[in-house]
């Protein structure tokens, strides 16, 4: 059937106007940030109560909302079928929040501000280096951080066999 009403991208953008709605949190649910996508619809998520949980993406949202590292989601905690030998507690992912709603999430009662930091890429050694760089920049403002010594070029008569 020919496209008589619009241009090249008319049919593609027709359904793109649908936005996800904001879902309120209930008592047995928590906010979480995805740290790692493990496969087989499983993820590791840092929850609102500072616990890392193994979360399962429900089938109803599997193809509607693509879950990636760094997304903030709503999880439902499992209180049944918990084995003591499991390394992580388990939860189910119910909803993924768009970036538009992050400011509204900050105003929620009991929302952990750590969820908005980049937890999945932070390394302890890297954080220490960043703190030291900021501290050294504050102490000595007269020195340029990016100033470095010029490397002297050596002669081209270097024996490759000795290396």
How does this structure look, described?
The chain is α+β, with helices and mostly antiparallel strands and 163 residues long. The chain has a single domain (19-136), classed as Nucleic acid-binding proteins (OB fold (Dihydrolipoamide Acetyltransferase, E2P), Beta Barrel), CATH 2.40.50.140. 16% of the residues lie in helices and 23% in strands. It is built from 3 helices and 5 strands, in the order αβββββαα. A 5-stranded mixed barrel has the order 1-2-3-5-4. A hairpin with a 2-residue loop joins β1 and β2. Residues 137-146 have low confidence and may be disordered.
Keywords for this entry:
five-stranded mixed beta barrel; alpha+beta; 5 strands; 163 residues; OB fold (Dihydrolipoamide Acetyltransferase, E2P)
Report the helical percentage.
Answer: 10-25%
From the spread of the alpha carbons, the general shape counts as globular
- Mean pLDDT, nearest integer? 76
Give the strand order of the largest sheet, numbering strands 1, 2, ... along the chain: 1-2-3-5-4
Q: Tell me about the largest β-sheet.
A: 5 strands, mixed, barrel
Enter the CATH topology name.
OB fold (Dihydrolipoamide Acetyltransferase, E2P)
What is the terminal-to-terminal distance?
Answer: 71 Å
Quaternary state of this entry equals: single chain
Count the DSSP helices.
Answer: 3
Please write the string of helix (H) and strand (E) elements. HEEEEEHH
The CATH architecture category equals Beta Barrel
User: What percent strand?
Assistant: 15-25%
CATH superfamily: Nucleic acid-binding proteins
Domain module tally: 1
SS-derived structural category = alpha+beta
The rounded Rg comes to 25 Å
